[in-house]
Queue: 2 jobs
Job 1
Amino acid sequence: MLAIHNLYKQFGNLIAVNDLSLTVNKGKTVVLMGPSGCGKSTTIRAINRLVEPDRGSIILNGANILSMQPDELRDIRKRIGFVFQHFNLIGRLTTAENVMLGLVMSGMDKELARAKAVEALDKVGLEQHLGHKPSELSGGQQQRVGIARALAYEPELMLWDEPTASLDPILVREVLIVMEELARYRASTMLVVTHELPFALRVADEIVLMDQGSIVEVGAPAQVFVKPVSDIGKKYKELIE
Ligand code: ADP
Ligand code: MG
């Protein structure tokens, strides 16, 4: 479904992503891990062109995202759900309105947008909170609104960039449960950047380890965390033991 080929991005003299190639098959969950600053966000943000790479190709269902014109890009972004570390909800809007907003802005009829929002909020277990403001929700619930906002588009690909990184440990769990549900039971296609090792072990079909802009290891969790070949893989193995 997604094929990244020789992706390269330099910021000044710094090579953030160095000829990286990666594929994600339909219905699979690929977890991208590696030390801070190794290029994970740059890679994942390039997929919907929040970062403009210097070269390479990113093919989603046969179309190269990196050669798309603005109107094509607008359409493709609706088909890619993106969940960030900071959920950036709008404080004066309710939960349902936060989820509806993008749909309505992109031209969807308000009633249909509301129905889609309710359905998405139901998937993340927030059907009881449609009328609440973000300030009335916990951090975990707010991030679940962020997830619903992405799900409302019924995206063919979900990208997650450290979705639990700004939550305190007690709230991390409820977000991981929602993510696991999406991966397992709804067969979403997901590329996830996370440091949550137990989640990665349980849920990933494939682990991709990065170091200094390059992929250093790819494999099933049982392979990467049990018989790692890379230095980074060996460090993760020690963390698990
Ligand atoms: P990660 O998500 O793995 O922590 P990033 O992709 O955010 O890593 O960053 C990779 C490298 O690129 C880091 O050294 C970071 O400082 C640098 N970098 C990222 N974004 C920018 C930017 N907009 N301008 C300059 N340097 C950047
Ligand atoms: Mg990052």
Note: Strands lie at 2-11, 14-24, 29-33, 55-60, 63-64, 80-83, 157-161, 190-193, 206-211, 214-219.
Job 2
Amino acid sequence: STILYNDSFLRREQGKVDMEDRGYQFGDGIYEALRVYNGKMFLLDLHMKRLNRSARELRLSLPYDTNHLAENLDRLIRENQIDYGYVYFQITRGAIARKHRFPEQKIDCVLTGSVEAASKDEDLHADGIKVSLLDDIRWLRCDIKTLNLLGNVLANQEAFEQGSDDAILHRDGVVTEGTTCNAFIVKDGVLITHPADHFILNGITRIFVLELAERLGIPVEERTYTTEELRNADEAFITSTGVRVTPVIRIDDQSVGDGKPGLITLRLLRAFNLDVEQFIAE
Ligand code: PLP
């Protein structure tokens, strides 16, 4: 397959990273993952906006502007003949002798990108999933999409070992988000999700689902909620680029609501899928 390396297109085997790359040593870098439908990147502008924000927050200067990046990613999709799948790319602060503080001289960022094929509806779990409720042990800047994902990795592994599909995390009883997704509940017809502050990543799918809710006239509260509220919710679901809207029907050994995907969840899921169908047809 072909990969993107800075501004070049290389064969996968040629994509080598320096051992002193700061992404490799410190996780000093940022990334984005997008969905490709019918050869086109879904919600591209929102992803690029978030990339610019992540870069700004880490004082990282991108190697080139996001229009040029989008052109390169388009070419990557075409060269690999991807109709349905994913684009992943990351940008690190570059390679230099290991020191925590930023390099004194200017060094070049390292950008790498790849694509992966997926079937059109892969990862749709409309029947619902089981999650584990686990401690959120991550740092306090979860709003930045950085390569540092150890807190997410450990919780995701623990959930897997508990027989769950993912974990929903909480800080001292306040639900934040999933290890790879945002978390929503529905109570008495109101959609509730953690506000987009430094405790969560403001998911592009989260933004899109909040827009859908407004369009459908579903009342929304962006506020913190407790693990108690999660356990007593009428409905729960997670959102991400990978899983779109996925109902949560079990939390540890307890079912959510009546143990079936909720009505508002399914309304949002259908509206989401219709928008994707429209995007595909455009
Ligand atoms: N929260 C975390 C911690 C994530 O890793 C992700 C996606 O990878 C999300 C939320 C969802 O973000 P998006 O909808 O942009 O995929």
Note: The chain has two domains: 2-117, 129-281.
